[in-house]
Every structure is written in C-alpha cells, then in structure tokens.
Inverse folding.
C-alpha cells in the first residue's frame, strides 16, 4: 500500500495508469497474492485506485484531486499533524488547549491593537483601499531590517519581502527552492506543520536528531552526506517543541556542513521576541547567501493580523516577488500598518517584557504541577512557551491525548512532532495555556 | 533554447544533468551546430546551464532556485505579465495607470472602511488576537452563501472556505487540482496573471478564443478533445479584459463539454458586483460538483483588506482546508470581520449602486475620447471597468505601452492577455483610471 501511495505521490503512477497485476506485484514485493489483494482493496476503499471489471486496477480518474493527507504514511489521528492543527483551531471556547502553539487571547496586547485600529481608521485613503507594493510596506521593512541587525543579521530593507504569515513565508520558499522528490531536512522533533507543509510539496522528508543545543552535529553531517538534501528548515532560538536554542559551536559546525554541501537553510525565527538571551542566528553567522531568515508576529502580537516576512539575498527576493505576484498578486497594507504602528509606539517592547516575566512564572508553576503527576521536562528552556516533557514510564502520549480530548482537553502528543515516530512517551505543553487548575485534574484522570 | 528551457521547466532535465552534446542535439533538432552553440551560450549567460571544461554542459547546480519568469517563453518586457503587474503595483503616485486592473483609491468606500475599523477596535479580544477557524469566520461564510444563492448558486456555509484573496484562492485550487504538465485551458485573451500563476504551477497552458458571448464553443469542444485538459479557468460575468459576459446558450454548451470530458472549472467571479444584469453562472447551471466558484472584494471594497473565498463541493473543501493549514496555518479574523461589517451595514450596496452609475458615465466619456484618437472598443461592455480596444491600423500596442511608460503612463498592451500573442493591436483601458485629461494628451503624443 505504501509503495503504491508513494508512486502516486511522486507521480510515478499517474491518474488513469494501470497498476501492476496482483501476481506481478506480489512477486516484485516478495509478499503473498492475498496481501496485495488486501492492499489494493484498501486503496479502492480510500478512493485512490479503482478496479475495472476484467481489466485490472487503475489510478483514479482525473477529478480526484490532491489529498495531502494521503501523501506520506497514514497516521493515527491523534498524531496526524492536520488533525492536531484542526483540533486546536476548531476547539470550542470551553475546551482547554495546552497542546496548542499560541498564547491565550488575554495574554496578547489587545489595548495596543485597539489603539492601532483607531489610528488606522484615520489614515490616508490609499492605505485603506489600495494594493501594497509587491515587496510590502516600506517603513515596516526598514524597521524589520533594523531589528534583524540587532541579531547581527545584515540586511537592507530591499532584501525583506512581506508575506501573510510565517507559514506562508516557508511555503513560498519551498515552492521557490524545491521540487517534488527533493530531500529536505527537518529536526526530529520539530514543529509538526513543517511535515504537513513538506508533504504538500511532495518533498522527501528526513529528520535530524535534535539535542539540547540544536541538531546533533555528527548526525547532521552524516545525513547530509548520505541524503544530499536541498534544504534544511529549523528554529535557531527557542526551538519548537523542545524550547532548546542553538549553541554557538553547534551553529558554527552546522553552517560548515551546510556550506560544504551547498545546502540552503530556512531559519524560522518566530519565537525570537520570547528570548531572554538571543541564541546565535545562522543568518548572522553565515550571511543571507544560503540562509533565509523568516519571522512573523502571530505568536507575540496577534494571529489575526496576518503579517510575516522573508529576509534573503537580493536575487532570491526578486524571484520570490514574482512568485508572490503570481500566487497572491500583492499584499495589502492594512495588516503591515497595524504591526508597524504597534512596533513603533513603544507598547510592544513593554508588552514583551511583561510577557517574558509572566511566562517565566508560568513555566516554573507548570513544571512543578506536571512533575507532581510524574510528567518531567526533558530540559528546562531558557524562555518561551513550550515544555517538552517525558510521560511516566509505559505511558503512551497518543493514548493520553485521545483520553484527554474526550474530556475537552487538546494535547500535543510527541509523535506528531517526530518524523521517526520515536517520541511516543513525550508531550509538548504550552505553559501559557495551563492556567486552569481543572487541566491537571483532567490530566490525572486521563492518565488513569 | 526553448526546448532545453522546457525540459528543465518540466523537470525532464534536473539540476546537475548533462545536456546532449552540441552535435547530437543539432542533429536531433535538425539545426546547425552553430545554432546549438549559440543557444547553449545564451543559456549559460542566463545562468540556467554551465559548461564544465572538457566534459560538456550541465544544468546549473542546486542553489539556483525556481525562476518563474524562466518557465515558458521569454517575453518582451512590455508584454510580460510580471512586468505589467510590477509596473502597476510599483507606479509612483504621479503616474497614470489606465493599464491597471483596479479602481483609484478615491472611488473606494473609505468612509465605510474607517467606520468598520472603529467598530473593530471595540470588538472582543479573541477577534483581535486569535487565529480564525480553518474555514474562516462563520458569519461571513453564511453571508457569502446567501449572496451566491441570489445568483442561483446552491451552497451551504460549510462549502465556503475563506482565503486571503481571489488570486490565492485560484493558486490553492491549482495546487489541489493540477500536477506539473497538466493541461489547463484559459480564455484568449484573459486576465494576464492567470498565465503567471499557471507558469508557477508548470501547467501546460492552452488558450480558447474568446468571443463577445464567452469562449468560442466549437473551438472549446475541439480543444478539449485534442488536449484533454484537467481544468478551465474563466470569468463568467464581465470577463477581464474584454468586459464580455457568458450568454445562456454558451454557458450551457460549455458545461456540456465540461461534463462529457470530466473537466473541472474555476469560475473567477470577482467582478460580479459591477454587473447591472447578472450573467449566467456555470456554478449555478452545473452545481458545485465540478465547477468551483471563487470571489473577493479587492476590486469593489478594498485591495488592502485581504479576503477572498472558494465555494466548492464539501469533499474538496475538506482537502482544501488541509492545504490551507499546511501552507498558511489558518486565517485571521480581522480582514473577514472588516468585510463582514461593511457588507452588513448597508453602505456596501449603496456604494456599489453609485459606483455602477459612475462607471457607466466614465465608460461613455472614455469611449468617445479614445475614439477621437482612433482607438475603438472591440465591443461595448454592459458594465464594469474595462474597455478592450483596437488601436489604429498598423499600430503596435507594446510599442505604444513602452512610449507611454517613458511619459509616466502605465498601459496594458493586448498581448499580455493573449497566450497566442495575437492581440498586438489591442489595448485594455480601465475607464476609472482615465479621469485625467493629461492622459489623452500623453496617449496622442505616444501614438506619434
């Protein structure tokens, strides 16, 4: 089944193509005829292939469109990235969401957003009604460029392209940089939507074991040599889900391998503003020749105000701008103006200062509460919102997530983050979403 | 050159692959060695291939990313979709833009937008800071579903997925529905960004001659039989650039062919609200089984408030939602709330009533001014913003566009809309952008 799915996914089998006969395929795979019959039957049930009386099995006809969930392995729902995303996004207001990746609404700078909206209601007509330029609002690009300079990343505003979100930035870069079948490295574990995104691009996804200081450098080196990837996607600071940050030595060694093997890196820096001490940035160490730096304000300012950015070499920004025009025509200025006005008015810095303190307190409190349930953090992050925790021996995270969901709690079980599926006793907790004492009662009950 | 580009574009040649030897390729193509040498030299100059001493020519190494402008034919700048888009979007405030596809800021409902922003500044916190649900703001989807019902399109709100724009809607659908190399039909002429978008998807683009009542039905039938397309993208009402609308008979015949040959149609309906009398909608006649209906408010409300939508069969909406999560995570509610509040408060309808009257007046005035320069509309549209015009005999639209640009006027020459490049004596004018009398002086001068 997996082989057929893969051939369809990689377009070695196209719609209308005839599948190998049951006998031929059984022989080829070294399995029994009945195994193939069963596999074909299941593919028919899934609507991927169809049988035509007397003439065999065929890949389904044209009108069956791409189903990303069918690319890659069929996963148990509890550890399927799409399912976890949908659970978090669709959760009813009365549900608890320690598994989601963002702050509660009450932790966000609503006063600043309300003020920015009032200011915007008085701005010039063009801002309210016109398309933005293809690169996006110039004063915001200038400000972002100055912000990146504080991390040692050397950019000009013309090297910054605004997008609708951080995810959209990575998506656009994948379209720009990779072809179906290209190998892409991700951290294992990593943000689960990277897997979903790369499945949509039909990439060959390879994981690199992730340590408390960043990716395992020896493994990284070996895997790069073995798999010749085109791209590596990572978080340098406050890695999702582990909360770890790159050490300078790891950063340097990763970058050496990257340069030696002509790799491109996407450095997804959306948690930067949560840091107490900035981690080294690959884009600072290596420049923007082969490192692409992206960010957004969804986690710190508002997820409703859609605005992300890409910083890359000028050549690539030019090609990316064409791609932006072709696939979205242009950006509006409304969301960028809102972000700009909040970044400029001084309240954003104060909000982040307060947020870091509040998160540190929550981190301590949630750690001790989890520990009292036998759930122990794998490491203690410097800052941020995530705690990556080991469950008591023998406990399965997917099972726990399923039980908890029945009780109205959305969890994020380890394997949803792990391409190698080696995190079945781990769980990611968002400390900002663990305020409600009811959560720990439910957890205790769900843990049996 | 075109052959090599195409092979690279369709991934028959991958990066690092060796090109055929000069002699072998010359023989294969039936041209002289020196022609191949010249072509290879130009590809080297363009950075697409490189020569390695003694061992021949190779497709350039990994770090050269996708360049959409290199997919498809190399076009003269004046008729390159990307260049025209960039000229319009990047135009300085003092430039005139009869070639652009949107209304001047002063024609947009700024009072309503300002009021909606003030209202939004007082809304609940979650709206300001949280992600929206994957499908997008429910009350807006309900309203859109009711609006579509007035065109006879039968949808439930669950069949409506919000996107960031109309273009993004089409882009998402292309990712969902087509594979590189799939044939996609577009009207000839059609909105130029369809070509750019489809080039990004590496589709095989085929044009259907467009008449005053919609696509030429006999040609459509023949082309569908010959090229077995997967998809057809069109505007049913107030077609861009011709301003024509589908006649009921053409709609019926097109749909018959579509159904017979298992085609999917994307009906891009972004000009609906400009119509005086609604044209028949393919989505109304055929239902949403194989017709997908999309829209946005960029042209009538604001291009800065990014919000579009897709109406499709429930199955597809489910797959599209996964794609939306993978590639953009989710939408925010800010832009949808703005659109909703303006659609609901009654001012949008008044704005559109006034706009239609104002456009009708502009249409008459601009027609007569253009006629006095010997520029004659090919047909008289019922409504809308576009006039598709024939230039005086012997005059080339690309040349005229270049001359006008030197004088600060952005025009949209015919061939930018024409996949067959058979519109070199045609020009699209946006009557709302032709208010300034200076424009006609400049045109006259540029026409020589």
């Amino acid at each position: 089944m997996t082989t057929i799915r893969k051939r369809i996914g990689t377009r070695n089998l196209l719609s209308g193509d005839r599948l190998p006969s049951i006998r031929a395929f059984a022989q080829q795979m070294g399995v029994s005829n009945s195994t193939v019959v069963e596999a074909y039957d299941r593919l028919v049930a899934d609507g991927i292939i169809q049988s035509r009386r007397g003439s065999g099995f065929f890949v389904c006809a044209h009108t069956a469109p791409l189903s990303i969930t069918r690319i890659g392995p069929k996963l148990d729902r509890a550890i399927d990235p799409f399912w976890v995303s949908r659970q978090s996004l669709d959760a009813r207001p009365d549900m608890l969401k320690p598994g989601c990746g963002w702050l509660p609404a009450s932790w966000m700078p609503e006063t600043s957003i309300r003020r920015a909206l009032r200011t915007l209601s008085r701005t010039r007509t063009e801002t309210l009604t016109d398309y933005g330029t293809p690169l996006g609002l110039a004063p915001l690009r200038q400000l972002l460029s100055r912000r990146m300079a504080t991390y040692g990343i050397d950019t000009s505003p013309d090297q910054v392209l605004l997008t609708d979100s951080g995810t959209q930035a990575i998506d656009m870069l994948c379209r720009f940089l990779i072809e179906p079948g290209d190998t892409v490295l991700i951290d294992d574990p990593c943000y689960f939507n990277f897997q979903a995104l790369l499945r949509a691009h039909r990439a060959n996804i390879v994981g690199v074991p992730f340590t408390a200081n960043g990716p395992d450098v020896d493994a990284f080196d070996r895997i790069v040599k073995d798999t010749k990837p085109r791209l590596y996607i990572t978080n340098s600071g406050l890695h999702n889900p582990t909360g770890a940050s790159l050490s300078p030595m790891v950063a340097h060694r990763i970058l050496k391998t990257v340069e030696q093997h002509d790799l491109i890196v996407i450095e997804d820096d959306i948690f930067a503003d949560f840091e107490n001490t900035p981690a080294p940035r690959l884009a600072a160490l290596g420049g923007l020749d082969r490192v692409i730096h992206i960010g957004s304000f969804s986690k710190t300012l508002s997820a409703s105000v859609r605005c992300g950015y890409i910083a890359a070499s000028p050549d690539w920004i030019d090609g990316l701008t064409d791609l932006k025009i072709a696939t979205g025509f242009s950006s509006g200025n409304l969301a960028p103006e809102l972000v700009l006005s909040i970044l400029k008015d001084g309240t954003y810095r104060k909000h982040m200062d307060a947020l870091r303190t509040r998160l540190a307190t929550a981190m301590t409190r949630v750690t001790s509460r989890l520990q009292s349930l036998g759930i122990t953090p794998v490491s203690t992050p410097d800052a941020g919102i995530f705690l990556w925790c080991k469950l008591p021996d023998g406990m399965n995270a997917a099972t726990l997530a399923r039980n908890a969901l029945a009780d109205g709690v959305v969890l994020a079980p380890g394997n949803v983050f792990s391409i190698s599926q080696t995190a079945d006793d781990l769980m990611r907790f968002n400390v900002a979403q663990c305020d409600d004492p009811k959560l720990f009662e439910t957890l205790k009950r769900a843990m049996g």
Chain B has three domains: 2-65, 77-107+349-446, 122-345.
